[in-house]
Write a structure and sequence with these properties.
The chain has helices at 4-13, 89-94, 96-119, and strands at residues 17-19, 28-35, 52-59, 65-75, 78-87. The protein has 120 residues and is an alpha+beta fold. It has one domain (4-119). The protein has a 5-stranded antiparallel β-sheet.
Length: 120
């Protein structure tokens, strides 16, 4: 299993881009990454496919590490954040495409439901 830094370096090797951490605290280290955008409808706000982001955490006390898979977007005037969180780094590395596909499917469902609300 990869440790926190090894997993982050692996993400960079896979083509992910690092961006400033979204969460800072004295007891937790966090690094944030964005990969190829998800499949599905465009976000209404920026007319682009929604992002595929991974937040990697390392708890200073206790040494717990985990990854969150996240996408954020707007459809039908409503915003959503879809998150799969607390995934072990080992599972995250082995199943990164499964989590990506899961977020894509959830985004598509959100968009379909927002279109139904517009038709009411």
């Amino acid at each position: 299993m990869k440790n926190f830094n090894e997993f982050c370096e692996w993400l960079l090797e896979q083509g992910f881009k690092e961006f400033p951490a979204h969460r800072e605290a004295s007891y937790i280290e966090c690094r944030s990454f964005e990969g190829k955008r998800l499949e599905g409808p465009l976000c209404e706000c920026n007319e682009r496919k929604p992002p595929f982001q991974i937040y990697v955490y390392n708890a200073i006390l206790g040494g717990h590490t985990a990854a969150d898979f996240v996408t954020i977007g707007e459809q039908g005037g409503e915003w959503t954040e879809i998150r799969i969180y607390g995934v072990s780094l080992e599972k995250a590395q082995k199943n990164i495409e499964v989590f990506r596909e899961c977020l894509s499917k959830q985004w598509k469902i959100f968009c379909e439901n927002m279109k139904e609300l517009e038709n009411d």
